[in-house]
Amino acid sequence: MAPPDYAPPRSLWALYLGFLSIGARSFGGVLPWAHRVLVEEKRWIVPADFAQVLALCQFLPGPNVGNVSVVLGRRWFGARGAVVAFLGLMALPLAWVFALALLYAGYAADPAVRAVVTGAGIAGGGLFIGTALKLARPIARRPWGVAIGIACFAALAIGRVSLFAVLPVALALGWLAARSGRL
């Protein structure tokens, strides 16, 4: 049960506008803005629930936050909510990507433009790291959660094990730890 200051959107229009605002600000990555809007600004979902929904959506094929929009839209308003949330998330980025692609095609060789694109990529990486730290808060005091997270990082980043091998093992360990009350 969510605390009283958290409540889902009241209408499909509010849902659309919420996800539209995520899509409108998502240069450099959608995840940091999705967390900020859904958890911190709109307070539609508690941090732990956001982390759980995101974990499920990372396991599914397709864009993670696109999947989050479908899952939450469906949770709150059924099939219409899933469609409305996804359309809100994708409307402005689609238009902007087409416009920027046309603009970039004429200036791609310019060193100043390349420097701006590189800087935007670095900023996006920083946003991603900051959001990862926020998402880790709900499990930071749970040794099993921290251990599973470190093991996944070690296997992927250091051991170069395939995500397709790590993900099912992490899922099974997380499920077992949750069932035993350790997570």
Description:
This protein has 183 residues and is mainly alpha-helical. It folds into 2 domains: 12-140, no CATH class; 141-183. The chain is built from 7 helices and no strands. Helix 1 (12-24) crosses helix 2, helix 3 (47-59) packs across helix 4 (64-107) and helix 6 (143-158) runs antiparallel to helix 7. The longest helix is centred in the middle third of the chain and has 44 residues, at 64-107. The relative contact order is 0.11.
Task: Count up the domains.
Answer: 2
In N-to-C order, the SSE pattern is HHHHHHH
Rounded radius of gyration (Å): 18 Å
Number of helices: 7
User: Which percent bin holds the helix content?
Assistant: over 70%
Number of strands: 0
Strand content: under 5%
Q: Termini separation (Å)?
A: 18 Å
| Main sheet record | none
Broad shape: globular
What is the average of the pLDDT values? Answer: 90
Catalogue the unreliable spans.
none
How would you describe this structure in keywords?
mainly alpha; 183 residues
Ordered list of secondary-structure elements with their pairings:
Blueprint: H1 12-24, H2 31-41, H3 47-59, H4 64-107, H5 111-136, H6 143-158, H7 163-179
Summarize the structure in short.
This protein has helices spanning 12-24, 31-41, 47-59, 64-107, 111-136, 143-158, 163-179. It is mainly α and 183 residues long.
